[in-house]
Amino acid sequence: MITRLPTYFLSHGGGPWPYMKSELGDACDKLETSIQSVRDELGIRPTAVLVISGHWECSEFTVSANARPPMLYDYYGFPAHTYEVRYEAPGAPALAARVQALLQAGGIDCLSDEDRGFDHGTFTVMDSMFPEADVPILQLSLRLGFDPMIHMHVGSLLAPLREEGVLILGSGLSYHNLRMMGPAAAEPSKQFDAWLQEVLVESSPSERQRKIVYWSAAPSARLAHPREDHLMPLMVVLGAANDDPATCIYHEEDFLGSLTVSSFRFGAA
Fold first, then answer.
1. Fewer CB in 10 Å around end: N or C, the chain?
2. What is the pLDDT of the chain when averaged over all its residues?
3. CATH number of the domain that 91 lies in?
4. Which three-class secondary structure string do you get for 221-252?
5. Does the global pTM surpass 0.90?
6. If you count DSSP H runs as helices and E runs as strands, how many of each does the chain have, helices first?
């Protein structure tokens, strides 16, 4: 019997970090350990993982339906060997059709993409969590316009998958401003993270749904997210979480030297 799985919003680091240990040293060790711990928390092997990645945006919600997803090296300026890494987990075309049906039944248009490969918001996290690459994986895009309410509604429509052993995982970053990194990012990332902790962990489920919609009014919100692509996966997993409580499972105040970043679980481990 499969217990309802929790949902997760994971900060996925920067670029192809799992494959750059010789270049980065121990800079991403805490992040990697937190992602690996998700597998241990689950206690079971998911039937599949549905990833909402901050690196896929479409005019309509779109689900990947490739049985053998290729690699999508959607990063620039990294060492040559990072463009040769492979993560050969299978896709899940049947589940993709179910995702499409669930959304369409809820009044949300959803397209299917049979060519889409794994972007780095997916394969870096999955390679850390399931290095054997034996769990089927599919992706759901964000919808341009980044309406928080619509993305939460999509998550609520996908919630039944949790009862079927499907892990719903949002892959983004709690701070994502590539033009403000280094020491200048320390205070904005800290301020926005503190607000996220208060809203997600300390507020009631009904309060957090109400507050998160107005995220752009939070302290340093538009410094932390000048464009909200890496925050929007959180909205989907929040919708799928229903009334489940939130737990911060990763918190680092010196990621890459200065950033405060966090990851969250919704529901019991």
1. N
2. 94
3. 3.40.830.10
4. HHHHCCCHHHCHHHHHHHHHHCCCCEEEEEEE
5. yes
6. 9, 8
